[in-house]
Amino acid sequence: MFGESKFSVLEKIPISIKPKAILIHHPASPELVIQKIKDNHLPFPLIFKPDLGERGWMVKKIKSEKDLSAYLKISNWDFIVQEYVDLPLEFSVYYARHPKKENGNITSLTMKEMLKVTGDGHSKLSELILAKDRAKLQWSVLKNTYAQQLDDIPADGEVIELVSVGNHCLGTTFINKKDIITTKMVESFDRISKQIEGFYFGRYDLRVESISNLEHGKVMVMELNGCGAEPSHIYHPGASLIDAIRDLFTHWSTIYSISKANHEKGVPYLSFVKGIKVYKKFKGVTNS
Fold it and tell me: ∠ at Cα 191 (186, 192), nearest 5°?
């Protein structure tokens, strides 16, 4: 469900559809990390995230060596340095394929709208943030992030992206886009998924230039999450609680079916003892 190395999963994804990334082991000095970034020709901005993460925990957009040093001061875990994917659309694509079947399906498709405000030519940035419900809920973080810009007055129509990480807990809006799933899109994700060893079920978090490129599998995958990841369309504004519960039960039933089939092929179940060990490691990192 959780505890896997995100970097080890990334390594399984075809190189043509993922951003460049390196793994930094704790402890590491700013000088060492900067040198590794230079050696791998990774320009700022970058994305830093724990190799063991949960719901966007400690995922940060790092814009400078100053940001890098600040991140290292609060981290005591291995983390990934990933090339920033500067593409306009972000989606979560949930894919499932039964091990005994040739092809799979896209069970959930969610578009992410980053937390942003739009200037009106007379309101301060702080006023724009506090006037927007989703942004206001993030005020305790945003007032520190934008401490030097809160009194700025954005121009009329100027869009300010407040958070660049597509996570619901950070104010991102999740839009259910199951209506745009096509046969071609499913075929594209079948093709991609069959190139990933041992992969039958999980959620791609990706960025893409256009809907057409998404349909044809011309994507950049930032993360591939396993069965601990939710079908994020259930967070669509105004979505029915009953529908969400129904979809989750379908989701869990699919997990069980795939897990059982893989076990019959010789894949061992996670033991209780190992599960507890993984859980303790996970909580030890995320509570630090």
Answer: 100
